[in-house]
C-alpha cells in the first residue's frame, strides 16, 4: 500500500513539476510582450499636455460586462472616460465579493493604477484594507458607507427614478397588482421597492406592490420563475432589481407590461418594456478623474440624484401614453428643483403606523439604513 | 467506428508517470490555441501567470492564502473518498464551520486569542463534523446515497449562514447590509508579516501531516484503505465499516469546518455572504483536488498550491494582459479534463473494433477482469 | 419431436481466455419446441457458451448456425435480431420505470418513437399468452423478484425472441415462483420456442427439460434425453465418472472436538432459507469435507461459521464456547481462519501490497501494532517469510496483489490464514481455477496442516479434492446435510445420489 500511495505522491509532484518546468520554459521564451505599464509614458505625455497627473483608472466589476445590468452600466461610464486622452482604463470582471477582491485591487495598485473604482457593496472592506497601505492611490467605492482619507464612496439616488417608474406602473396597471422581483434584502433594494410603491400609490392609492425575493443578482432562470409567480397571482406590471432581463421577457410572454432596471432593456422585451430607471456613471467618473488629474480630489460621500443625471429614466416606449409622460415629467421637475423628494411625509409603514410624519422628510442616513417596507407593499423583508 | 473501453489487465508503470505529464502539457497546448484565438500570446500569458504566482513574494503569499482553505477541504474530501464515501458536501461543512466559529464570537466574548482561537477551532471542527455526520449516519443506517444528501445539505448550510447574517447576527451599524460586525482582535488569526498569510496555513500543514500519519501509518488508516479498496474484504477482516464511516466523516467535515473558521477568522474577519468564492467554491474545488492528488495528503498540498497559483496567476493576466475572466476556469477545467481522461486511459485501453473478445458484457462497468473461465455471472 | 426443426446448432466452439480454455470444441444443438438444460459445475463453461450465443463473446473457433443459416454474431444486437434473447441472473431493469417502459427501453429509433399505449397492449397480450402475470403499468420497485424475472422474459419475447436462454433462473426464486416459471416455460415450448435452461438443481432439471447437455472442464461430455437418464447419471457426468486421485492418509488419532454446529439454519441474501438445521462436528487433526452442487448452501455455511452471516436458528460452539451470532472480528479473535472462495472479491484487496494483504486479518495483533500505528517493518518481515516459505512468485512484498496470478494469490491467502494462530480453518473452493501444480501445492499444504493438528472445514465442488483430502464428507443439498460418511472407501455413486437429493440412508 505504501508503495502505491507513494507513487501517487510522485504523480502529483510530477504534475506540478511538469507544469512548473513548462511554464519556466515558456517564461524564458516569452519576452516580447511589454507587459504592465505599457502606454504609461504616452498617457503621461498626454496628461502633461493637459496639465496635471495622468490618470490610470481601474474598475473592479462584480459580474461580466455582458450582464445587461449593473456592470454594463458601470462599463458605459468607464468607456466614457476612456475616450479622454489623459485617461487610461482597465477592468476585471466577475471578481468575487469579500476578501477575495483584495487581491485584485492590490494587483491594480501594484500595476501602477492611481484611481480604483470598486463597483459593488461587497468590495467595501477589501477597498478599505488595500487603501490603508497605499495612501497615494485614490479609491472610490460604490454603494458602501466606509470612507478613509483616500477612499470615497459614490452612489446615486436611484429611488428617485424608481418613484417615477412607479407612477407609470400605477397608471398602467389594470388589476391594481404590481409585481416586484426583488434581489437581496439590503437597504438599497428595500429603498427602491418603497420608492416605487410610493410612486404607484401616488396615482393609484388602492394598488399593491407584491414582492418576491430571489436572493440573487444574476440568475436568469430563478428571476424568470419569480416573475412568473407574480404574474400568476395577477400582477400586470413587473419590475425588478436584478441584472438580467428575464423578468421583462416573462412579462412580455404573458402580454403584460414591464419596467426594467440598470440599463434600457427595451430590446429584450419590446412589447412589454415601458421604461427603466437607469444609471449614468459617466457623470461621476468624469468628475472624479478630473479631480484626481488636478490633485483636487478629496474624500467624501457622493450621493447624486436626478439633478446630476447620474440616475434617470430610459426613454419612454410608445406604450406609455402622453398624459402619463406629462405627469412623470412634472414630478421629475419637482424633484430636480429640490422642492420635493420621494420620502416626504406622510408615509406609513406596512402596519399603518407613521414612518415619516406629515411635512417631514427622511434624512439621508435613515434612507441609507432603510430596512422596513412602506404601506402598500405585500411581502416581508426576510432575515 | 464504434469505440469502447477495455480494461488493461496490467497497468504500465511508465504510463502512470507519463500520463499526468502529457495531460498537463496537452491542456496547456489546447489553452494556448484558445489564447491565440483571443489574440493573446500564450507563451507570455503562461510566463506572466507563473512568475506572478510563484516568482514574487506577494504573489506567492496570495497563493498560500488561496491554498489554505483548499488544503483543508481537500484533505477532508480525500479522506472520505479514500473510504469510497463520496462527500460532495465540503462546501456546506465549511459554511457550518464558519458559522460555529462565528457563534463563539457572537456570544459577545472578547478575550485573549490564546483562548478564543482554540475555542473557535473546536467549534468549527464540531460544526463541520456534525454537519457531515448526518449524511454518514443516513448512509450507514438507511443506505441513503451520500452524493445526494451531502450535495443538498450544502444549500441548507449556505442558507443557514445567510439567515444569521441577514437576521440575528447582522451588524447594527452596517446600514442593514448582511454581515456580522468585525471580529475582536482575540478572534482574528495571526498573520505573518505584511502578508495575508495567516495561522490557518499552519493548521492545513499540520492536518496534512496528521492525515499522512493516519492514512499511511496507523492501523485505523489501514482499515480505511482496505474498506475503500474492497469493502467485502474489510468485512472479512473484521473491520467495522459503519463505525469507521462515521469517524471518517466526522474528520472530513471537521477539516472543512476548520477551513471555514480559517477563512472568517484569518481573511474575512467577519461572517458574510461569499466566504467561499462563487465561481470556484472551495468545497467543490476540493473534490477536484482530492481527485488530482490521487488521494495522497502531500498531493493535496501540492495540487492546492497549483490551484492557488492558477487563480492568482489567472487574476494577474486578467489585469496585465486584459484577458477574459473565464480563462482561469477554462484552464482549470481543461487540466482536470485531461488528467482525468489520462487516468482512465492509463487503466483502460480504447478499442475501435466491435465485438471484442474477453471484455465484460456490454452495459456492465468494466471493473474486474473475467475470471479464468469467463463465468462472470456464475452462481454458487 | 420427430420432425422438430433445429433452432441453433453450435459446432466446435472454442473460446480461450488468457491461460484458460473456457470452451473446448463444444457442440450444442437446440431444437424448436424443446427445453434444453445446460448442466455443469461452476467453471465448466456454461456462461461462456451462452455469451458466445448471445454475441457478447466471439468464439475463437467453431461455427454457429441459426435455423440452418450460418451466422456471425458480432454484438448482442445481432443475436437479438436473430431472435436470441437471454435472461441474466442479475436483472437489468430501471426500478422507477413501469414494466412497459422497461420493456420498450432502447427500442425507439430516430423519428419513430415507441407508442406506449400500443406497447402496453402488446405486453398485456404476451403476458396472457405465456402465463407471465404482471401488471404492465406497475413500477419495477413494486414487483417481487419473481415478477421482475417475468419482466425480463417479456422483454426478450417483446423483441421477438424465439430462442430463450435462462441463466439459473430458479436460483433467486421461491419454490412457488419456480413452479410458475415452469408453467411458462412449458407454454413457450408448446409455441415452438427453443429454451436453454441453466441450473445446478438436478430435480428441477429432471422435471422440466427434454434434453440435457453436460459440460465439464469446458467440454461437452454428453447430451442425453431426460427420459433416458436419472440424477445419479447426471451427477456422475458432472463430476466425472472416473475420478482418479490419491488419498492423503488421515490421522489415526483425532484430537479434541473443536467445532460443534447444532441445528443451524440461515437465509441467503434474498431472504430465502439457505441452510436447514445442519449439525456436525469437527475435531483437531481432521478435515471435514462438504460436497454438493454449487448453490446448495455452501457459501452460506462458510459465512455463518466465520461470522459474516447471522444464523436464523441453531448454535455454533468453538471449543465449547458459544459463538452463535458473533461478529467477524469476534470470530477472528476466537481463532477461526478462513480462506473464502472469492479470492479477488473477498479475500484480498487488489490495490494493496502483498505486505498489507498478509496482515489483512492480523493487523490488530500486538505483533503488528505499535500503539495506534501499524508496525510496518514487522509486516514486511512477515510477508517476506510467507513469500519464502510458501514459494510465492512475486517481484517483492511491495507488489500490489492485483498483479499476482490466481495460484500465487491463493498461496498468499492460504499462507496468511494457515500461519495465523487458529483453532479452526474454513477453506472454500481452495483450488478452483488453479493449475495442476498450484492445486497440488494447496492440497499438500492443507494435508500437512492437518497433520499438525488443525481442524479444517473444506468446502468444495471438486469431489476428487474432497475424496483425496477429507477424513469425512458431508453432502449438502438444498441447504440440508444429506449425510456424513467416511471418505476412506466412500462410494462415488452414493455421493452422486446424495448430491442429487437422496439421504445417505436411501442412497447406500
Could you please describe the fold and organization of this structure?
- The complex is a heterotrimer of chains A (383), B (380) and C (508).
- Chain A has helices at residues 2-29, 40-50, 70-82, 100-110, 124-132, 159-172, 187-203, 220-232, 246-253, 282-294, 322-337, 364-368, and strands spanning 55-60, 87-92, 115-118, 138-142, 151-156, 177-182, 208-213, 237-240, 257-259, 277-279, 301-304, 311-313, 347-348, 354-356, 377-378.
- With 383 residues, chain A is an alpha/beta fold.
- Chain A has two domains: 40-156 and 281-304, Rossmann fold (3-Layer(aba) Sandwich), CATH 3.40.50.2300; 159-276 and 314-378, Response regulator (Rossmann fold).
- In chain A, the strands form four sheets. Chain A has a six-stranded parallel sheet, sandwiched between helices. In chain A, strands 9-8-6-7-15 form a five-stranded parallel sheet, sandwiched between helices.
- Chain A starts with a helix and ends in a 5-residue tail after the last strand.
- Residues 1-41 of chain A have low confidence and may be disordered.
- With 380 residues, chain B is mainly α.
- Chain B has a domain at 71-288.
- Chain B is 66% helix and 2% strand.
- Chain B is built from 13 helices and two strands, in the order βαααααααααααααβ.
- Chain B has helices at residues 13-37, 42-55, 57-82, 90-106, 113-142, 146-166, 200-217, 219-229, 231-236, 241-268, 282-292, 297-320, 327-347, and strands at residues 4-7, 348-351.
- A two-stranded antiparallel sheet of chain B has the order 1-2.
- Chain B is globular, with a radius of gyration of 23 Å.
- Chain C has 508 residues and is α/β, with parallel strands linked by helices.
- Chain C folds into two domains: 6-239, P-loop containing nucleotide triphosphate hydrolases (Rossmann fold, 3-Layer(aba) Sandwich); 257-507, Rossmann fold (3-Layer(aba) Sandwich).
- Chain C has helices spanning 46-53, 76-81, 99-104, 116-129, 145-158, 175-190, 202-208, 231-239, 298-305, 328-333, 343-347, 354-358, 376-389, 406-419, 436-451, 463-469, 492-499, 504-507; strands at 6-17, 20-31, 34-39, 61-66, 69-70, 84-87, 163-167, 194-198, 211-216, 219-225, 257-267, 273-283, 286-291, 313-318, 321-322, 336-339, 369-370, 373-374, 424-428, 455-459, 472-477, 480-486.
- In chain C, the strands form five sheets. In chain C, strands 6-7-8-3-9-10 form a six-stranded mixed sheet, sandwiched between helices.
- The model of chain C has no long low-confidence stretch (mean pLDDT 87).
- Chains A and B meet through helix 1 and helix 4 of A and helix 1, helix 2, helix 3, helix 6 and helix 10 of B.
Amino acid at each position: 500500500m505504501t508503495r502505491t500511495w507513494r507513487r501517487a505522491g510522485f504523480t502529483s509532484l510530477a504534475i506540478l513539476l511538469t507544469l512548473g518546468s513548462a511554464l519556466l520554459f515558456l517564461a524564458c521564451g516569452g519576452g516580447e510582450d511589454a507587459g504592465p505599464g505599457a502606454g504609461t509614458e504616452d498617457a503621461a505625455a498626454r496628461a502633461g499636455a493637459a496639465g496635471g497627473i495622468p490618470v490610470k483608472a481601474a474598475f473592479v466589476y462584480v459580474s461580466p460586462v455582458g450582464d445587461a445590468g449593473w456592470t454594463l452600466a458601470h462599463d458605459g461610464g468607464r468607456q466614457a472616460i476612456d475616450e479622454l486622452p489623459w485617461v487610461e482604463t482597465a477592468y476585471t470582471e466577475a471578481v468575487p465579493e469579500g476578501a477575495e477582491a483584495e487581491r485584485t485591487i492590490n494587483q491594480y495598485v501594484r500595476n501602477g493604477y492611481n484611481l480604483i473604482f470598486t463597483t459593488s457593496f461587497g468590495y467595501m472592506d477589501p477597498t478599505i484594507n488595500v487603501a490603508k497601505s497605499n495612501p497615494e492611490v485614490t479609491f472610490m467605492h460604490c454603494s458602501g458607507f466606509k470612507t478613509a482619507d483616500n477612499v470615497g464612496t459614490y452612489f446615486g439616488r436611484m429611488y428617485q427614478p424608481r418613484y417615477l417608474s412607479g407612477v407609470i406602473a400605477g397608471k398602467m396597471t389594470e388589476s391594481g397588482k404590481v409585481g416586484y422581483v426583488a434581489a437581496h434584502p439590503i437597504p438599497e433594494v428595500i429603498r427602491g421597492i418603497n420608492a416605487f410603491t410610493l410612486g404607484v400609490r401616488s396615482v393609484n392609492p388602492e394598488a399593491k406592490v407584491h414582492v418576491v425575493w430571489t436572493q440573487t443578482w444574476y440568475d436568469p432562470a430563478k428571476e424568470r420563475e419569480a416573475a412568473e409567480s407574480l404574474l400568476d397571482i395577477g400582477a400586470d406590471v413587473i419590475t425588478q432589481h436584478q441584472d438580467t432581463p428575464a423578468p421583462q421577457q416573462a412579462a412580455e410572454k404573458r402580454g403584460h407590461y414591464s419596467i426594467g432596471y440598470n440599463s434600457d432593456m427595451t430590446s429584450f422585451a419590446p412589447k412589454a418594456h415601458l421604461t427603466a430607471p437607469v444609471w449614468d456613471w459617466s457623470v461621476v467618473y468624469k468628475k472624479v478623474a478630473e479631480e484626481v488629474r488636478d490633485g483636487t480630489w478629496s474624500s467624501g460621500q457622493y450621493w447624486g440624484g436626478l439633478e446630476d443625471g447620474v440616475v434617470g429614466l430610459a426613454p419612454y416606449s410608445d406604450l406609455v401614453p402622453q398624459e402619463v409622460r406629462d405627469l412623470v415629467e412634472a414630478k421629475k421637475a419637482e424633484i430636480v428643483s429640490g422642492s420635493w423628494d420621494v420620502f416626504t411625509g406622510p408615509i406609513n409603514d406596512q402596519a399603518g403606523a407613521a414612518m415619516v410624519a406629515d411635512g417631514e422628510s427622511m434624512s439621508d442616513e435613515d434612507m441609507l439604513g432603510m430596512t422596513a417596507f412602506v404601506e402598500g407593499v405585500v411581502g416581508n423583508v426576510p432575515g | 467506428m464504434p469505440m469502447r473501453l477495455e480494461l488493461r489487465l496490467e497497468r504500465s508503470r511508465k504510463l502512470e508517470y507519463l500520463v499526468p505529464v502529457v495531460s498537463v502539457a496537452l491542456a496547456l497546448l489546447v489553452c494556448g490555441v484558445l489564447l491565440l484565438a483571443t489574440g493573446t500570446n500564450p507563451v507570455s500569458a503562461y510566463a506572466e501567470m507563473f512568475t506572478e504566482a510563484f516568482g514574487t513574494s506577494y504573489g506567492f503569499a496570495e497563493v498560500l492564502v488561496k491554498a489554505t482553505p483548499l488544503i483543508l477541504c481537500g484533505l477532508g474530501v480525500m479522506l472520505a473518498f479514500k473510504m469510497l464515501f463520496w462527500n460532495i458536501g465540503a462546501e456546506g461543512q465549511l459554511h457550518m464551520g464558519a458559522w460555529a466559529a462565528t457563534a463563539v464570537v457572537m456570544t459577545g466574548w472578547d478575550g485573549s486569542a490564546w483562548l478564543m482561537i482554540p475555542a473557535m477551532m473546536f467549534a468549527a471542527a464540531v460544526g463541520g463534523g456534525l454537519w457531515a455526520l448526518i449524511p454518514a449516519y443516513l448512509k450507514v443506517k438507511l443506505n441513503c446515497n451520500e452524493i445526494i444528501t451531502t450535495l443538498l445539505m450544502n444549500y441548507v448550510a449556505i442558507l443557514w449562514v445567510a439567515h444569521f447574517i441577514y437576521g440575528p447576527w447582522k451588524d447594527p451599524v452596517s446600514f442593514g447590509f448582511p454581515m456580522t460586525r468585525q471580529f475582536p482582535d482575540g478572534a482574528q488569526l495571526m498573520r505573518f508579516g505584511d502578508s495575508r498569510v495567516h495561522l490557518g496555513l499552519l493548521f492545513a500543514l499540520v492536518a496534512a501531516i496528521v492525515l499522512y500519519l493516519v492514512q499511511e501509518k496507523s492501523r485505523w488508516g489501514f482499515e480505511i484503505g482496505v474498506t475503500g479498496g474492497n469493502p467485502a474484504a474489510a468485512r472479512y477482516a473484521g473491520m467495522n465499516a459503519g463505525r469507521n464511516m462515521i469517524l471518517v466523516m466526522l474528520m472530513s467535515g471537521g477539516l472543512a469546518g476548520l477551513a471555514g473558521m480559517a477563512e472568517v477568522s484569518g481573511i474575512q474577519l467577519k461572517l458574510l455572504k461569499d466566504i467561499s468564492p462563487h465561481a470556484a467554491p472551495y468545497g467543490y474545488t476540493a473534490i477536484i483536488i482530492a481527485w488530482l492528488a490521487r488521494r495522497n495528503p502531500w498531493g493535496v498540498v501540492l495540487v492546492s498550491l497549483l490551484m492557488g497559483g492558477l487563480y492568482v496567476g489567472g487574476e494577474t493576466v486578467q489585469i496585465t494582459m486584459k484577458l477574459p475572466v473565464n480563462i482561469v476556469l477554462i484552464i482549470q477545467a481543461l487540466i482536470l479534463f485531461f488528467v482525468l481522461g489520462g487516468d482512465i486511459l492509463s487503466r483502460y485501453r480504447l478499442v475501435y473494433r466491435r465485438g471484442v473478445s474477453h471484455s465484460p458484457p456490454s452495459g456492465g462497468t468494466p471493473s474486474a477482469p473475467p475470471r479464468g473461465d469467463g463465468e462472470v455471472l456464475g452462481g454458487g | 419431436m420427430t420432425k422438430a426443426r433445429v433452432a441453433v446448432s453450435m459446432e466446435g466452439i472454442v473460446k480461450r481466455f488468457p491461460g484458460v480454455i473456457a470452451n473446448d470444441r463444444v457442440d450444442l444443438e437446440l431444437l424448436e419446441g424443446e427445453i434444453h438444460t445446460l448442466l455443469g459445475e461452476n467453471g465448466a463453461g456454461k456462461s461462456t457458451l451462452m455469451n458466445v450465443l448471445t454475441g457478447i463473446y466471439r468464439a475463437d473457433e467453431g461455427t454457429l448456425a441459426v435455423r440452418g443459416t450460418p451466422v456471425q454474431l458480432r454484438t448482442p444486437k445481432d443475436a437479438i435480431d436473430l431472435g436470441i434473447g437471454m435472461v441474466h441472473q442479475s436483472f437489468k431493469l430501471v426500478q422507477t420505470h413501469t414494466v412497459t417502459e422497461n420493456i420498450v427501453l432502447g427500442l425507439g429509433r430516430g423519428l419513430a418513437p415507441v407508442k406506449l399505449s400500443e406497447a402496453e397492449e402488446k405486453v398485456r397480450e404476451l403476458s396472457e399468452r405465456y402465463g407471465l402475470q404482471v401488471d404492465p403499468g406497475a413500477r419495477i420497485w413494486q414487483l417481487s423478484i419473481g415478477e421482475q424475472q417475468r419482466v425480463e422474459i417479456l422483454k426478450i419475447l417483446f423483441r421477438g425472441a424465439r430462442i430463450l436462454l435462462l441463466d439459473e433462473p430458479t436460483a433467486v426464486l421461491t419454490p412457488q415462483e419456480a413452479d410458475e416459471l415452469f408453467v411458462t416455460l412449458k407454454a413457450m415450448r408448446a409455441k415452438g420456442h427453443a429454451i436453454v435452461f441453466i441450473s445446478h438443481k438436478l430435480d428441477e432439471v429432471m422435471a422440466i427439460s427434454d434434453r440435457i447437455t453436460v459440460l465439464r472442464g469446458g467440454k461437452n461430455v454428453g447430451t442425453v434425453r431426460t427420459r433416458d437418464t436419472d440424477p445419479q447419471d447426471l451427477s456422475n457426468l458432472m463430476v466425472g465418472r472416473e475420478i482418479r486421485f490419491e488419498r492423503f492418509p488421515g490421522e489415526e488419532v483425532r484430537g479434541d472436538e473443536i467445532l460443534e454446529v447444532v441445528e443451524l439454519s440461515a437465509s441467503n441474501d434474498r431472504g430465502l432459507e439457505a441452510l436447514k438445521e445442519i449439525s456436525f462436528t469437527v475435531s483437531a487433526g481432521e478435515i471435514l469435507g462438504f460436497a454438493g452442487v454449487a448453490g446448495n448452501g455452501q457459501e452460506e455455511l462458510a459465512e455463518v461459521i466465520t461470522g459474516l452471516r447471522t444464523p436464523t436458528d441453531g448454535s455454533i460452539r468453538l471449543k465449547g464456547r458459544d459463538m452463535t451470532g458473533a461478529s467477524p472480528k469476534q470470530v477472528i479473535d476466537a481463532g477461526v481462519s478462513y480462506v473464502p472462495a472469492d479470492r479477488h472479491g473477498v479475500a484480498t484487496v487488489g490495490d494493496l501490497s502483498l505486505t498489507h494483504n498478509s496482515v489483512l486479518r492480523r493487523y490488530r495483533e500486538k505483533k503488528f501494532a505499535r500503539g495506534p500505528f501499524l508496525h510496518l517493518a514487522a509486516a514486511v518481515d512477515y510477508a517476506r517469510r510467507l513469500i519464502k516459505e510458501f514459494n510465492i512468485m512475486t517481484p517483492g512484498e511491495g507488489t500490489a496483489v492485483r498483479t499476482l496470478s490466481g495460484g500465487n494469490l491463493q498461496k498468499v491467502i492460504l499462507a496468511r490464514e494457515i500461519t495465523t494462530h487458529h483453532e479452526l480453518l474454513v477453506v472454500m473452493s481452495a483450488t478452483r481455477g488453479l493449475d495442476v501444480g498450484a492445486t497440488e501445492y494447496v492440497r499438500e499444504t492443507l494435508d500437512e496442516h492437518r497433520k499438525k493438528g488443525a481442524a479444517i472445514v473444506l468446502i468444495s465442488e471438486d469431489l476428487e479434492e474432497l475424496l483425496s483430502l477429507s477424513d469425512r464428507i458431508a453432502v449438502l443439498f438444498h441447504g440440508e446435510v444429506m449425510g456424513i460418511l467416511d471418505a476412506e472407501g466412500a462410494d462415488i455413486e452414493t455421493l452422486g445420489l446424495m448430491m442429487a437429493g437422496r439421504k445417505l440412508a436411501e442412497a447406500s
